[in-house]
Amino acid sequence: MTNPFEDENASYYVLVNDEGQYSLWPAFADVPAGWTVAHGEDGRAACLAYIEENWTDMRPKSLVEEMKQYEAAG
């Protein structure tokens, strides 16, 4: 049995959560709570390219915002 996250011939979505974190998700599976579709339905390579292009900061959104507030406070 092929891992559904590694099947080159399957269709996928790119999901994103409220923290701005991305996930490759098999199109046949229900989108989990707290996640929304950012791209797809598309091939695995196209979805991975989308993630590579759009997820440029691996830090959670809440951490980025907290660090900005800290830096602004001096």
From TrEMBL:
Source species, domain of life: Bacteria
Name of this protein: Protein MbtH
Organism phylogeny: Bacteria, Bacillati, Actinomycetota, Actinomycetes, Streptosporangiales
Gene Ontology cellular component list: cytosol
Source organism (scientific name): Actinomadura rubteroloni
Domain MbtH-like: 3-53
Pfam families the record matches: MbtH (PF03621)
Coiled coil (UniProt feature): none
GO biological process terms on file: siderophore biosynthetic process
Function recorded in the entry: Could be involved in mycobactin synthesis.
